[in-house]
Write a structure and sequence with these properties.
Endonuclease, Chain A; 141 residues
């Protein structure tokens, strides 16, 4: 794994301190391996490529499970704007090319049906079915 620059680390720390209400709610359910004993990071930088100039490019994910290459993104109304939507799709393309699975939720989903969101997150682990079965995660609660 590449060494992350101090600038990116600083941005990640600031984002962790300034989490949205929805991010705080979901983090309470993901932190400390509370969901299926899986480790998640919040506001975690993900290396995507190095420019010709030598500058490393990162995407800071809302929540990241490195073990299963899963990224969870929470979207609010600004993500409906065409420019932001297109940027999200570009970032998603970069990440899927690196074998990450991205699942997105609207902030409203976190507030209105958190259990359904958590179920969808758990179901998303099946995209690496054999690996999960090897670890016996289907039997964990």
């Amino acid at each position: 794994m590449k060494k992350v620059s101090e600038v990116i680390i600083g941005v990640s720390r600031r984002l962790r301190k300034e989490m949205t209400g929805s991010e705080k709610i979901l983090w309470e359910k993901l932190k400390s391996k509370q969901l299926k004993n899986i480790k998640f990071l919040r506001q975690a930088p993900v290396y995507v490529y190095t420019e010709n100039s030598g500058l490393d490019r990162y995407i800071i994910s809302d929540f990241l499970c490195r073990e299963y290459n899963l990224i969870i993104e929470l979207d609010w109304s600004v993500h409906d704007l065409k420019e932001i939507y297109e940027l999200d799709k570009h970032k998603e393309s970069l990440l899927t090319n690196l074998w990450y699975k991205i699942i997105r939720f609207k902030n409203e989903e976190i507030h209105s049906n958190l259990e359904k969101v958590l179920s969808k997150i758990v179901a998303s682990f099946s995209w690496q079915g054999e690996r999960i079965q090897e670890r016996g995660l289907k039997n964990r609660s």
